[in-house]
């Protein structure tokens, strides 16, 4: 009896292995794990495709090839061409370099190249603000070869994001991933049109998360990657190993102008909010206190007898702005906003930015070694107007 059961088990195992071999050879996609994707409506009225948030701490499954991720994401990545009028200089120094036949004064057309990502099927396209800043004409070249005129819906210089609209339907929109679930070491792909050579995919890993104080944008929380990013990649997609968008490529650190393996992308945790507000309002509305902040160093923490080097030092307060009207003073140390601890300047600026203008905010400050509670009526951060060049 045992012998018969053993033979039956051996035969079933052999058949199962044979079936697994056939499926893995002929239909490998059947064996790939899938992630649930659902339409995610946002307050602007549009709907983006976004993966369902996995449990905290869940890591990505390893895959042998990233061809499927590239295949899924590439149709949603576009090239962005912009032109603007630039005035010629009458400086005689320029004549020495450009020759005496160069027309003096007047203007000339200057073209620039970048990349973008189709965010919705009905024609909203994400890119960098610096790609389209002050542009007179914008065109978007789709992956299928079509070239369409684009309208600037809104831009946000403080995160270097912009939203365009093209007159087309049923476009291949990207699936938004969850940048907050990225981990250092995760594989990512950068997709764009570097140097206008055509759509290009490069691979790397997440080198660091939460990069700030780089002086690139006002609000910084960058994903750092070693995937090659070059001129023309700005505004393109940074996707995970499943082809889901986790960031918008925006800048590189380089002394030569080429990639040296230090690139930065704006995470989707910021992108989705900015996209929603630009579509809804044409601008991003942020909370505002009107203070000049500075990080607390260990030395300052020791001088003020703080238990840790947390909080933010208020160097100055803008006259007649919300913080001064609430009684905040230079020298105060902000400890918390609405009972959420303040860790550092970038984190505090994000906390304030998320506040609703006109709403009260409870702020706990340290003044003369005593905790003081203030109620700040949140203002609206003034818009930053990009310089026209």
What's the arrangement of secondary structure elements?
Elements: H1 2-26, E1 37-41, E2 47-51, H2 67-73, E3 77-87, H3 92-98, E4 107-118, E5 124-128, H4 129-132, E6 137-141, E7 147-156, E8 161-166, E9 175-176, E10 187-192, E11 200-211, E12 222-225, E13 237-240, E14 245-252, E15 263-267, H5 268-281, E16 287-288, E17 291-295, H6 298-303, E18 312-317, H7 322-325, E19 333-337, E20 340-341, H8 345-353, E21 360-367, E22 370-377, E23 379-380
Parallel strand pairs: 2-9
Antiparallel strand pairs: 1-2, 3-4, 3-6, 4-5, 5-8, 6-7, 7-8, 10-11, 10-13, 11-12, 12-15, 13-14, 14-15, 16-23, 17-18, 18-19, 19-20, 19-21, 21-22
Could you explain how this protein is built, in words?
The protein has helices at residues 2-26, 67-73, 92-98, 129-132, 268-281, 298-303, 322-325, 345-353, and strands spanning 37-41, 47-51, 77-87, 107-118, 124-128, 137-141, 147-156, 161-166, 175-176, 187-192, 200-211, 222-225, 237-240, 245-252, 263-267, 287-288, 291-295, 312-317, 333-337, 340-341, 360-367, 370-377, 379-380. The chain is built from 8 helices and 23 strands. The termini are far apart. Residues 93-102 and 385-389 have low confidence and may be disordered. With 389 residues, it is an alpha+beta fold.
């Amino acid at each position: 009896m045992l012998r018969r059961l053993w033979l039956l088990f051996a035969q079933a195992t052999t058949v199962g292995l044979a079936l697994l071999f056939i499926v893995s050879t002929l239909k490998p996609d059947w064996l790939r794990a899938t992630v649930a994707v659902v339409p995610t409506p946002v307050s602007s009225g549009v709907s983006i495709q976004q993966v369902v948030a996995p449990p905290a701490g869940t890591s990505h499954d390893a895959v042998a090839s990233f061809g499927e991720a590239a295949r899924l994401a590439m149709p949603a990545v576009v090239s962005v061409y912009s032109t603007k009028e630039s005035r010629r200089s009458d400086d005689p120094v320029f004549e020495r370099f450009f020759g005496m036949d160069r027309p003096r004064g007047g203007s000339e057309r200057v073209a620039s190249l970048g990349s973008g990502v189709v965010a919705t099927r009905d024609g909203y396209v994400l890119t960098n603000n610096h790609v389209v800043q002050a542009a007179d004409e914008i065109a978007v070249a789709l992956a299928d070869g079509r070239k369409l005129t684009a309208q600037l819906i809104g831009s946000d210089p403080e995160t270097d994001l912009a939203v365009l609209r093209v007159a087309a339907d049923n476009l291949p929109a990207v699936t938004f991933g969850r940048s907050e679930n990225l981990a250092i070491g995760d594989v990512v792909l950068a997709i764009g049109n570097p140097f206008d050579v055509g759509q290009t995919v490069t691979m790397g890993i997440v080198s660091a998360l939460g990069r700030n104080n780089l002086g690139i944008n006002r609000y910084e929380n960058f994903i750092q990657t070693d995937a090659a990013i070059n001129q023309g990649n700005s505004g393109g997609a940074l996707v995970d190993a499943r082809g889901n968008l986790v960031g918008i490529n925006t800048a590189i650190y380089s002394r030569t102008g080429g990639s040296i393996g230090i690139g930065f992308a704006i995470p989707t945790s910021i992108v989705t909010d900015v996209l929603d507000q630009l579509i809804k309002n044409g601008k991003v509305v942020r909370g505002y206190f009107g203070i000049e902040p500075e990080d607390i160093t260990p030395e300052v923490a020791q001088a003020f007898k703080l238990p840790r080097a947390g909080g933010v030092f208020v160097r100055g307060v803008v006259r007649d702005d919300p913080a001064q009207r609430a009684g905040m003073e230079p020298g105060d140390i902000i400890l918390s906003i609405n009972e959420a601890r303040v860790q550092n300047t970038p984190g505090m600026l994000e906390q304030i930015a998320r506040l609703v203008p006109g709403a009260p905010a409870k702020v706990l400050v340290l003044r003369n070694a005593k905790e003081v509670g203030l109620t700040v009526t949140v203002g609206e951060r003034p818009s930053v107007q990009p310089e026209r060049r």
